[in-house]
Amino acid sequence: MMKRVVLCLGLLLVVVCRAVASASGDDVVAAFARAAHGEPLRYVAIGGSITQASGDGWVGEWLREQFPESDVTVVNSGMSATGSSLGIFRIDRDVIAHQPDLVAIEYCVNDGGGSDEDVVRYMETLVVRLKSLPKPPAIVIVEAASQGGVNLERHRRVARHYGLIEVDMQVAVDAQGGTWSDYFSDTVHPNKAGHELYAKTMSGVLAPLVERARSSRVEIKPAMLPAPLSVKPLLLDARMIPLQGYVTPGWRAEASLPAWWNRFFQGVLTADKPGAVLKIPVRGTTIGVFSALSKDYGSFYASVDGGLPSHVFTNTRDGYSYTGFASDLPAREHVLTLVLPAKNAEDPKLNGPVKLGYLLVAGETGASREASPQGEFTAEVMRDLVFTDIAASAWHYTTPVPVESMEGLQTVDARSVLFNPVWPEPGDVQFSLENMTWKQATGDGGLVDLRVLANSDAPAVAYARTTLRSEQGGAAIISLDVDYYAQLWLNGERVLVLDGPHPRPLFLTVQLKSGVNELYLKTCSGSAGHNFDMRVAQLGIAP
C-alpha cells in the first residue's frame, strides 16, 4: 500500500513538474542557496482569498524544515476578492515593505474577468516591479484551480517571458482523482484537504530546487529584463496613499473599523452629511479609491477633472472594494472630486456614511505639474443630481433565447452572441417592434430579472424596450446596472456596447429629444445573472 502511495505521489509530481518545465527557476535556486548558507529567507505570498486562507502560503513551515540554518520569515498578504488590478497598488505596502527573498503570486482565478491586455499588463507590472528592486526576490506564479477551468494563458505568458516557476494546481487536482468536493468547498476555494494538496504540490515543485541549491552556492546576478509584453506602459510606481490624514470640511478621521477587514486599512476618512465634498489633487495617469463597505453605508459620486462621474455604492455588501475612476490619463495634474448625494435624501440606497481608506495612484513618474482642463461635472452639479428609477413594469421584454439553442454548445454566459441578432435590431431594414412578441416585465422597484421571469438559469439573450418622456429635451445621464453584456439604443441610435467588465452601475451621457424617447436594450446573461436596472437624471441643459 505504501509503495502505491509513493508511486501516486511521484506521478503527481512528474505531472506538475512537466507543467512548469519551461520555467528555469534559477532565481529560486539562488534564494534557496543563500538560505542554505544561513542567510535569512523572507517569504511573502500575495493573492486573493485562496492565498488568504492558505495560512503560511502553503509552504512556510516546509521552508523552515528545509532551511533550519536560516531565519525564515513568512508573510501572508492574501486579500479576498481582489486580483492583480489591485495587487499593483498593494505591492509596495504588502510585499516590498517586507524585503522579500521569495514571493508567490496567486491571481489566476480572480483575474478571470479581466481582459487579456489588462491582465498581462498588471501581472507584468508586479513581476518587473519586484525584479527591479536592488535585491530582487525570486518569484513563483501559483495557478490555482477552478471547477470550470482557469484561463492560465495570460499569467503563463508573463511567467515564461521572465523565466519564472509556475505551479499548476489544476493539473495537480486532476491527477489526484476523487470528486471535486473532496478538495473544494465551492468552485474555487480549497477546503482543508485541498489546501493540503496545494501545499504538497507546491513543495513538490520546489523540492528539486532545494537540492540544486544545496549542491553548490548559486549566485544569480541581476540581468537585463526582456522587453515588456504589454503594449501599454507598465504601472511601476502604483501605490496606495492613506486618506485618514486628509483635513477638509465635512470629513473626519476614524482610527479603525469594527470588523475583521480592518486589517486591510490604516484608518478611514469618513463623511455622512449629504452634499459633503472631497477634492484631491492627483499627479499621474491612473486614479482610484479603496473604500470600506457595509450594508449601513451610503454612496458617492466621483469625477476626474469634471468628467462624466461614476456612482459608487458602498452598501452592496460588507467588506471593502476598490474602484478605478480613470486610467491612461495625460501625465499631469488632475483633480479627483468626490461628492455625497444631496438629493433623494429619503433613498437609503443613496444616503449614508462613506468611509474611504486609500487613494490609488499610478503614473506620477514623468508627469508634469501642468493643470488639466476641467469639465462641466463640478461638485455642485454632482451634488444636485436627481435620478428617477424606470420601474420594472415600464419595460416590455422578449422571451430569453438560450444560447445553446443558437450555437448548439454549452457556455457559462451569453457574451458570444452579443453581436449575433436574434431579431432584427435598430438600423436593420427589417427592424420592427410589431414583428416581435413582447411581455410586460414585473419586479420590485426598477430591477428586471430575466432569469426569474423566464424561470431559467440557462445562458440567454433577450431584448427589452421602454419609453422616456422629456419635457424640454437636452442632456441626461443614464445609470445602467446590467448583468452582464448589453447593447443600448436611444431613438434608434446605438449609444452603448458592453462586451466586457464594466462598472456597476455605469453612467452614460445622452441627448434626449423633447417628448417621447425610445429605449431599446439587448441583454446577454453573465455567469451569475441576467438582470438590469436603469435610472435617469435629466440635467436641464438644452441641446
Could you explain how this protein is built, in words?
The protein is of the alpha+beta class and 543 residues long. Helices cover 23% and strands 30% of the residues. Strand 3, helix 6 and strand 4 form a beta-alpha-beta unit. Strands 16, 17, 18, 19, 20, 21, 22, 23, 24, 25 and 26 form an 11-stranded antiparallel β-sheet that branches. Strands 6, 7, 8, 10, 13 and 15 form a 6-stranded antiparallel β-sheet that branches. A 5-stranded parallel β-sheet has the order 2-1-3-4-5, sandwiched between helices.
Name some characteristics of this structure:
single chain; 543 residues; alpha+beta; eleven-stranded antiparallel beta sheet; six-stranded antiparallel beta sheet; 26 strands; 30% strand
Extract low-pLDDT stretches: 1-23
Distance N to C terminus: 81 Å
Number of strands: 26
Bin the helical content: 10-25%
Radius of gyration: 26 Å
SS content category: alpha+beta
Helices and strands in order:
Layout: H1 2-19, H2 26-36, E1 41-47, H3 49-52, H4 60-66, E2 72-78, H5 84-94, E3 102-106, H6 116-131, E4 138-143, H7 153-161, E5 165-168, H8 169-176, H9 192-215, E6 239-242, E7 252-254, E8 268-271, E9 277-284, E10 286-293, E11 299-304, E12 310-313, E13 319-326, E14 332-339, E15 354-362, H10 379-383, E16 388-389, E17 396-397, E18 401-402, H11 403-407, E19 439-440, E20 448-449, H12 450-454, E21 460-470, E22 474-490, E23 493-498, E24 506-512, E25 515-525, E26 531-538
Parallel strand pairs: 1-2, 1-3, 3-4, 4-5
Antiparallel strand pairs: 6-15, 7-8, 8-15, 9-14, 10-13, 10-15, 11-12, 11-14, 16-26, 17-19, 17-21, 18-21, 20-26, 21-25, 22-23, 22-24, 22-25, 22-26
Helix pairs in contact: 1-8, 2-9, 5-6, 6-7
